[in-house]
Design goal:
Layout (H helix, E strand, L loop, with lengths): L2 H12 L3 H8 L3 H9 L6 H11 L18
Helix pairs in contact: 1-3, 2-3, 2-4
C-alpha cells in the first residue's frame, strides 16, 4: 500500500471529509486530494500532521523496495 492509498483508506474508514482533514492538518483540501491521487508525496512533517488528525499511523504509508535503476 502506498501513502496515497493509506491516507485515502484511513480517511474513508472512520475519518473526516477531505476538507475537514485538511483543516485539522493545517493544509488545503487540494493538497489532501493530490496526496490521495498519488500526485504529491508528502513530507514526514505533513504525514505526521495527517496521522495526528486521523489519530492513527496504521497503514498510512509503506516503503517500496526498488533496484539500482529505480524499478520495483
Amino acid at each position: 500500500m502506498s501513502g496515497k492509498d493509506g491516507v485515502k483508506l484511513a480517511r474513508a474508514k472512520d475519518g473526516p471529509a477531505q476538507a475537514q482533514l485538511a483543516s485539522k492538518a493545517k493544509v488545503t483540501r487540494h493538497r489532501i486530494g493530490l496526496i490521495e491521487a498519488g500526485r504529491l508525496a508528502p513530507s514526514l512533517k505533513l504525514y505526521t500532521a495527517i496521522a495526528n488528525a486521523l489519530k492513527t499511523w496504521d497503514g498510512l504509508f509503506s516503503v517500496e523496495q526498488t533496484d539500482e535503476d529505480g524499478q520495483r
